[in-house]
User: Which sequence fits this backbone?
């Protein structure tokens, strides 16, 4: 209840100390709490069924021990950590869990979860990895299946009006996050990159309405405060795999740089396009989650393009990154990927080629989801900043 | 005091993971002192003592030093430094002073290795090894210990080898099994050492090839004193490798040169640089 009295960034900080506190209160009041992994589960559908979505993360401060019985050490350290937390009971309060086919390991972990953890309700969305016509049709059918499963779980039929209402609330959240990111355009930015990650994590720990209220509070507070970030030489954008803790960004911002933009999933990635409200709202949801979230887990391509040279392809796939760089006055890019994250690792050469093509210096960091990695990475980032200074 | 000519001095402190190097340059960029000491836990705390030794060797006091730049992994543990820069930038500057045409610099230190792409004295791009000890001086230290050799003997010994032992793993732990196997099969120690040098050179050459390998290629760091690794690198990269007379000092020299550039730039613009009190006291450990 203490957090109810807090406002703005103080509330964000408190939520990040104990992310589950609010959903546990709601659960005691009779709400169902569903965890979700990655950004492809259809949150609007959960909200429409009056289920509170709660994003699941790993914990960089918790050594992986129990997950070693199920996953080898040569797979995504984030997913190993996430499973480890599940096995240790960190997410035992969940009424349900929604996952999606984010990558091969991410598709395998739910099966381990079902075997070893036994959350009362689980649903895995077999999200396709291409945007081909057949994939669109398949993904649309998955919306029907998810709806049917949730209807069976709740014993209620989904009212289209409630789904539209939920889409509007989540679109409002997207709009508010974009407004928050607008505060990073000035020099110095009004909110730091590390604060942004904590803000997004807080929003993803709350029901949509409460998240929206928190965003409004923080936007107002940040606009008015006098003790925001200071002007620095580097205005960096981060591109890459999940950063579910602020350690890497804090390290970067301890140097002569502000992180003013990102393309990561605990950042701008889930929020920079709205869901179109279509006659059948499931059509809009299916199209949004497959086509408009720009994560390398979905291969973006124009299958019917006449011109297929490398540079044209790069511009087609990553042109939005160039737009970000221009609009946020970025002068350098930190590309980061978790060790063994093939999804992002394979994308790195192409993304780097794109940044080279548009004349933006970049550095690639591979990290292993440990705090011990920060010191050697700091030398690399500082060296990069010395080059672009 | 009238008529007395004042010379200003610049110091570079390279607090590496294994060795601490300090160079003091005068305004003509001549080294008036150069000290190399083992870092260790105590020297990391006591960088000030090494600095005092360098001042004593040069016959200077702390007031004579106009600017101090710290570099290396322990750069933040030098409380008396005016600024700190990465070893990447400082090595590039130091190597460029010695070899103006350098385009690729390879530095293999105690616990890391790095390759720098340099143009006109400026760092353009770089590659560093990850946190694995393979391809570093520590790799050679451990293997020398296993073979009962001194590190400084490895280079000359390897040159006497007629063949190179084929070793597969660059891993410092697993390669010990391979070395033990070769020893039990009667392979000559010098051939094993030549094989070890080839492993290091191969790993670093792979890093170098991620950048553009073109002469002049300069090799610095403690491992550059090992003639066997120099030869192995030349074979792996297919070009001549230049090694400075004092390969450990390029980072500290570069740091001192950067300090001089900062002072000259400030003087030219009329900027008054803040003067910090030079107290050579212990740094708080790892703060």
Assistant:
């Amino acid at each position: 209840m203490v957090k109810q009295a807090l406002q703005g960034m103080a509330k964000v900080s408190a939520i990040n100390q104990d992310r589950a506190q609010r959903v546990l209160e709601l659960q005691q009041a009779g709400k169902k709490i569903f965890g979700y992994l990655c950004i492809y589960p259809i949150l609007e559908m959960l909200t429409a069924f009056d289920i509170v979505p709660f994003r699941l993360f790993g914990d960089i401060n918790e050594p992986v021990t129990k997950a070693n019985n199920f996953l080898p050490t040569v797979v995504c350290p984030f997913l190993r950590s996430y499973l480890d937390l599940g096995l240790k009971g960190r997410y035992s309060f969940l009424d349900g869990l929604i996952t999606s086919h984010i990558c091969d390991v991410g598709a395998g972990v739910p099966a381990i979860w079902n075997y070893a953890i036994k959350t009362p309700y689980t649903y895995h969305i077999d999200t396709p990895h291409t945007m081909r016509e057949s994939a669109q049709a398949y993904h649309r059918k998955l919306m029907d299946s998810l709806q049917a499963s949730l209807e069976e779980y709740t014993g209620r039929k989904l009212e289209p009006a409630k789904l539209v209402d939920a889409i509007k609330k989540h679109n409002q959240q997207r709009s508010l996050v974009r407004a928050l990111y607008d505060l990073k355009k000035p020099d110095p930015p009004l909110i730091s990159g590390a604060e942004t990650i904590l803000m997004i994590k807080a929003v993803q720990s709350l029901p949509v309405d409460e998240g929206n209220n928190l965003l409004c509070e923080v936007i107002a507070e940040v606009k008015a405060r006098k003790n925001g970030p200071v002007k620095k030489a580097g205005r960096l954008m981060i591109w890459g795999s999940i950063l579910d803790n602020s350690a890497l960004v804090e390290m970067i911002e301890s140097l002569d740089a502000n992180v003013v933009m990102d393309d990561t999933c605990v950042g701008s990635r889930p929020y920079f396009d709205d869901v179109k409200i279509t006659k059948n709202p499931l059509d809009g949801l299916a199209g949004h989650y497959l086509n408009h979230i720009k994560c390398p887990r979905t291969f973006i391509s124009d299958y019917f393009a006449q011109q297929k040279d490398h540079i044209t392809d790069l511009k087609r796939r990553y042109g939005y990154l160039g737009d970000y760089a221009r609009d946020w006055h970025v002068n350098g890019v930190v590309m980061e990927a978790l060790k063994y994250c093939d999804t992002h690792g394979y994308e790195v050469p192409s993304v780097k080629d794109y940044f080279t093509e548009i004349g933006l210096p970049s550095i690639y960091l591979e990290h292993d989801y440990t705090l011990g990695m920060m010191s050697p990475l700091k030398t690399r980032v500082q060296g990069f900043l010395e080059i672009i200074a | 005091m009238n008529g007395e000519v004042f010379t200003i001095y610049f110091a570079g402190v390279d607090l590496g993971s294994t060795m601490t190097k300090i160079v003091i340059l005068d305004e003509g960029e001549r080294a008036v002192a150069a000290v190399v000491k083992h870092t260790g836990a105590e020297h990391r705390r006591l960088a000030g003592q090494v600095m005092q030794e360098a001042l004593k060797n040069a016959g200077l006091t702390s007031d004579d030093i106009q600017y101090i730049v710290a570099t290396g992994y322990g750069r933040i543990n030098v409380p008396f430094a005016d600024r700190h820069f990465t070893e990447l930038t400082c090595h590039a500057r130091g190597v460029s002073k010695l070899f103006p045409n350098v385009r690729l610099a390879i530095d293999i230190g105690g616990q890391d290795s790095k390759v720098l792409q340099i143009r006109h004295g400026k760092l353009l791009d770089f590659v560093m090894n990850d946190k694995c000890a393979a391809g570093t001086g520590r790799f050679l230290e451990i293997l020398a210990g296993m073979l009962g050799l001194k590190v400084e003997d490895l280079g000359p010994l390897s040159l006497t080898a007629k063949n190179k032992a084929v070793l597969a793993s660059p891993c410092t732990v697993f390669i010990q099994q391979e070395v033990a196997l070769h020893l039990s099969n009667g392979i000559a120690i010098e051939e094993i050492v030549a094989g070890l040098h080839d492993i290091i050179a191969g790993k670093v050459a792979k890093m170098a090839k991620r950048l553009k390998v073109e002469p002049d290629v300069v090799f610095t760091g403690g491992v550059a004193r090992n003639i066997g690794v120099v030869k192995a690198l030349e074979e792996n990269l297919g070009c001549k490798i230049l090694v400075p007379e004092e390969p450990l000092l390029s980072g500290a020299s570069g740091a001192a040169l950067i300090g001089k550039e900062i002072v000259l730039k400030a003087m030219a613009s009329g900027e008054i640089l803040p003067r910090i009190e030079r107290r050579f006291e212990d740094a708080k450990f790892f703060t």
